[in-house]
Amino acid sequence: MPKIESNSAPFSYDGLDRVIHEKARLGLLTSLMAHPKGLAFADLKQLCGLTDGNLSRHLQVLQEAGLVEVTKGYEGNRPHTSCRLTKTGRRRFLEYLAVLERLVRDAARAAGREETAAGKLRILPA
Question: What region holds the HTH arsR-type domain (predicted)?
Fold first, then answer.
C-alpha cells in the first residue's frame, strides 16, 4: 500500500500517539505533568479513578515506552511506589498536546465553513 504524503492527508494526525491517546494513560500523563516531582501510586490511582491492576498495567505500558519512571521503595516499614514523567515523557506529551491543539483548530475551522455554508451548524460549549 503506498504511503500517503502528509500534505495530501492533512487530517491524518500522525502525532496522536496511541500509547498516550488511550483515555486512562492520557489521564495518568496529565496528572503527572501537573506534579513534576511525581505522585505516589495511591494518589495517582485516586486522581485517575483506576483500580490497582489497571493502574499497574497502564504504568507498565508508559514505562516500557520510556514516558514514566516508577520507583519502588519503603517509607518507614511500608512499601511505597512513586511515579513521575521522564524528560522524554514530558516532551512527547507536549508534542501530543500540540497535535490536539491543531486538531481542535482544524475542526473549528471546518465547522465555521460549514456554518457559513449551511447557516445552521452550532458548536455548543461543553
Answer: 15-109
Residues whose CB falls within 8 Å of the CB of residue 26, separated by 6 or more in sequence, listed in order: 20
The top-level CATH class assigned to 18-118 is mainly alpha
Residues 95-125 have pLDDT tens digits of: 999 999 999 999 888 888 655 544 444 555 5
DSSP 69: E
Predicted model pTM: 0.78
Single out the residue of 37, 40, 35, 30 nearest to residue 62, CA to CA. Answer: 30
11-54: per-residue pLDDT in tens? Answer: 788 888 899 999 999 999 999 999 999 999 999 999 999 999 99
Domain ranges of the chain: 18-118
Q: CB–CB of 11/83 below 8 Å? A: no
Axis-axis angle for helices 52-64, 23-34 (nearest 10): 80
